[in-house]
Amino acid sequence: MNSKIGKRIFIITLLTLTILVSLILIFQKSFFEKFYIQEKTKNLSNNLDTFSKNNSFKGDDSTTLLESMYKFQEDNNGQLGVLYLDTSKVFFPPNTRSEFKNLFRSIFNGLASDKATVNSLISSGKVKTETYYSEELDTNIIVSACPMSLNYKYDSILIAVSTVHPIREASSVLSSFIPYFIAVSLLVAVLYSVILSRYIANPLIKLNKIATKMSNMDFSERYTPKDNDEINNLGETLNFLSSNLSNALEELKSKNLSLQNEVEREREIEEMRKNFIANVSHELKTPIGIIEGYAEGLRDGILKDPDGNYFNIIIDEAHKMNKLVMDMLELSKIQSGVLKPKFESFNLIRMINLSLRKYEGLINEKNLSINFNPSFEYLYVTGDTFQIEQVLSNFITNAIKYTPNNEEIIITLEKLNELILVSIENLGASIAPEELDNIWNKFYKVDKSGKRDGNSSGLGLSITRGILDLHKSSYGIKNTEKGVLAFFTLEASKETEYE
């Protein structure tokens, strides 16, 4: 019993039972005999009054009277006698003990000589009772007397005598039994206190444990009701509260996480916006400066351009600006969800061959070898033809750009169940590991030489990533033992390839 409430319940219950037992003993010692005598006196008086009014005793039928007297004595644990006033004759049952006979004669002799008492009894017609010590019996006795009508009204006096010593004997025996009674009572009180304290304390301790866990945001504990009482009802209410709080907390966590993600997303968008503006400003600054410088020189006559070279430079820079703006618009449409793919079935092999022909001049300029030898002539995939062509153009131009002269570019197609894996590997090149995660970012360039490339806006791979995400494609760029490998997947068309 380690709990405070269990100890309190045990102590209170034990004290209550101890006080109750003590009160019983005090009552038995101090008041029981008096109470007994009082009740005995009242019952004796009432029964004697009822006996005296019995109409079956009319006349000289002593047999009926005697039988009734026997029954009265047995029921009331007393002795009964009759004094006939006319003859002063005393009548009592034959089994009356001698000491009681002497007592009756003494009482009746006293009444015979005390006319006032007899007249008082007859005039009142009621039972009179007294308790006093009898020398003949050597004990306290209860004496009740009342007038009785046998041959005519109130022609006799009825006397009932009962001793008090039986209750004293019982009290004496009970006093001897008190030590055993106290020991047993204390043992019962201790056992009852332990059982009661556990019955009440254990559920309360369990409820307190659950409430403590709930205060620490742990809602895993549940109370198991055993009975339908207030404590178990409290347990069920606590379970209901715990379940609701747990659900509310999980919902709050979910919403808080969603809010954090939204805040983080807003922060990222704001950071991207700032970087985007900074990058756009940087990318536009150079062509604008070139156009402005050459235009002012031609206007002021500082520059002479008989062959139109300066005008060609201005037009070329304007084309670069136009490409940058168009790429930004394209990326903006993809990121905002405005641009939706128009899925259709097309021959991927034919698209790759067309892209390679488009950049044949650049390939020959660097004396590159293209290794693209599919094992079949036609391979149909599902996707947006215009967007996938952009993806192929970005990967192929990057491969051509970063592949050293006289090296090789390998393009392969591989079937993966319902997907087609496209791989473009340019040999002799590599990307620093710390830059692999950044190459998809807007305006990020692996070439840090500062050399301007009219065919690159720094948005190609960002646009490529957006297009492949719209196609739910798996894609990536990684270093290999011989070079750099770019890959992506497309969903195979339901049409069958032809070998």
UniProtKB/TrEMBL annotation:
Entry's transmembrane regions: 177-201
SUPFAM superfamilies: ATPase domain of HSP90 chaperone/DNA topoisomerase II/histidine kinase (SSF55874), HAMP domain-like (SSF158472), Homodimeric domain of signal transducing histidine kinase (SSF47384)
Enzyme class at the top of the EC tree: transferase
Residue ranges occupied by any HAMP domain in the UniProt entry: 198-250
GO function terms (MF aspect): phosphoprotein phosphatase activity; phosphorelay sensor kinase activity
Keyword RNA-binding: no
Enzyme Commission designation: 2.7.13.3
UniProt cross-references to InterPro entries, sorted A to Z: BphY/WalK/GraS-like, HAMP_dom, HATPase_C_sf, HATPase_dom, His_kinase_dom, HisK_dim/P_dom, HisK_dim/P_sf
Taxonomy, superkingdom: Bacteria
Entry coiled-coil feature ranges: 231-269
Coarse class of the protein's main subcellular location: membrane
GO (cellular component) term, any one: plasma membrane
Alphabetical GO biological process terms: cellular response to phosphate starvation
PANTHER family: HISTIDINE KINASE, PHOSPHATE REGULON SENSOR PROTEIN PHOR
Protein name per UniProt: histidine kinase
Protein source organism: Clostridium paridis
